[in-house]
Amino acid sequence: MAVFIQQVINGLTLGSVYALIALGYTMVYGIIKLLNFAHGDIFMVGSFVGYYIIQNLNLGLFPTIILTMIVTGVIGVVIDQIAYKPLRNAPRLSVLITAIGVSYLLQNGMTAIVGPETKSFLSAFEQTPGFVNQSVSLGGISISMMQIILLSTTIILMILLQFVVQKTKMGKAMRAVSIDQEAAQLMGINANAVIAFTFLLGSMLAGAGGVMVGMYYNSMNPLMGAGYGTKAFVAAVIGGIGLIPGAVLGGYLIGMVEVMITAYGNSMIRDAVVYLILIIILLVKPAGLLGKNENEKV
């Protein structure tokens, strides 16, 4: 039982990462029906930004996370304004290809800047408060302080996101644009500002995830965004893309499945199992676990 509970904790930790990234996918898709495949690479950029902030500015973990969120948020808005805004009325395929191009641009740009080698957060850990490296043991179950920080930070960010979406004026505008963009504009809502704000929020969450993953796994490389981004996209689809609760549910489900397959099965097939679950859910419930099937006029 202790081993099982330990794996549940590990699954929740990994699921928190997927959930943070999946939220960015699902918010952008919910607003403008765009699959932003560059989102995983913003997560990667966040990891490197956090690393260099800790290394060069000697800041603690939480100031680093906040500053990284600001930087990646700005990057997300810049990408939207330069790459996506001119294509607002273009065919979806054009925007999708552009998103893939932005993804490769971020990957190769970061490779050119920092090199292709995997880097370690070890030296950054040495500059953070000692409690970050500690762990708590209860009845044979070990919980590292980084796991506690990752889980608690994820929950706090999700609560703040839900508050922004449900209780603020901008959140109300986001919900209006997601339902009917043209009608929202006729009511005086600046759709471009709402879309930019959505990219800001999603990219900030991805940046926070990048820092915590870099520190938790103590490694990062310019291609890490592709792997995490793909799994987070799968999580968003499984939960119901376009739905914030669906992204959270899908993220924790995927994280738990991966950890349990690795612990009790064969780690070599964990990816295959994840995609098999995706296929089964799409066959049984194409809109995702929390999504509703809607008829689309053509």
UniProtKB/TrEMBL annotation:
It is a multi-pass membrane protein. Belongs to the binding-protein-dependent transport system permease family. LivHM subfamily. Its main location: membrane. It is found in: Cell membrane. It holds the Pfam family BPD_transp_2. InterPro entries: ABC_transp_permease (IPR001851), BCAA_transport_permease (IPR052157). It comes from Atopococcus tabaci. The chain crosses the membrane at residues 12-32, 60-83, 95-116, 136-165, 186-213, 233-261, 273-291. GO terms for biological process: D-alanine transmembrane transport; L-alanine transport; L-isoleucine import across plasma membrane. This is Branched-chain amino acid ABC transporter permease. Keywords: Amino-acid transport, Cell inner membrane, Cell membrane, Membrane, Transmembrane, Transmembrane helix, Transport. GO terms for cellular component: plasma membrane. GO terms for molecular function: L-isoleucine transmembrane transporter activity; L-leucine transmembrane transporter activity; L-phenylalanine transmembrane transporter activity; L-valine transmembrane transporter activity. The keyword Cell membrane applies.
